[in-house]
Amino acid sequence: MNPFDLISDISAWVVPCLIFSAVFYAHFCGTKVFETFVEGAKEGFEMSVRLIPYLVGMMIAIGLFRESGAMELLESMLAPLLKLVGIPVEILPLAIMRPVSGSSALAIATEIMKVNGPDSLLGRMAATMQGSTDTTLFVLAVYFGAVGIKKTRYALTVGLLADAAGILAAVFICRLVFL
């Protein structure tokens, strides 16, 4: 038997086995499993309803930024600096949008890969950026807002610094490995 087939078979059963084990253990300990599940689902739904205003605000802000031409203006202003440090200008929209919105960043990364190919340097940079950064502003606006956290100063600073490090590392490592 091929070891990859064995790993594939095992991985297909890991999550169901973990879920079954957790339910069995909870039942064995006397927890009312179904009632607890329903209560958690109810809390999750209530949290989703509280998130809606933050999601709508974030989506409107992203749409305004992109449709106003601000992205193109920023690209043209930063192009000389980016060229100087070796960052392709085509990757800038992804680097800007990734900390803001995962779906917008995914759309931009998909477009980069459609135009340049997934195995191109830009395609690999886009994929690496997607994996090495997070949607910092989205997390702060939506999740912190939903639970009432108002003081996000350090979280914002650290999150954006981590995103910048991920973006620069993606460019540097892809240039090092794929050029």
Q: What do you see in this structure?
A:
The model has no long low-confidence stretch (mean pLDDT 86). Helix content is 82%, strand content 0%. The chain has a domain at 69-178. Helix 2 crosses helix 7 (136-146) and helix 6 packs antiparallel against helix 8. It has helices spanning 3-28, 33-67, 70-85, 92-97, 102-116, 121-132, 136-146, 153-178. It is an all-alpha fold and 179 residues long.
Features:
179 residues; mainly alpha
Detail the topology: elements first, then pairings.
Layout lengths: L2 H26 L4 H35 L2 H16 L6 H6 L4 H15 L4 H12 L3 H11 L6 H26 L1
Helix pairs in contact: 2-7, 5-6, 6-8
The description of the largest β-sheet is: none
Oligomer: single chain
Shape: extended
Intertermini distance = 38 Å
**Low-confidence residue ranges:** none
Mean pLDDT: 86
Output the helix-strand order: HHHHHHHH
Number of strands: 0
Give the helix tally: 8
Please estimate the helix content.
Answer: over 70%
Give a short overview.
The protein is 82% helix and 0% strand. The protein has 179 residues and is an all-alpha fold.
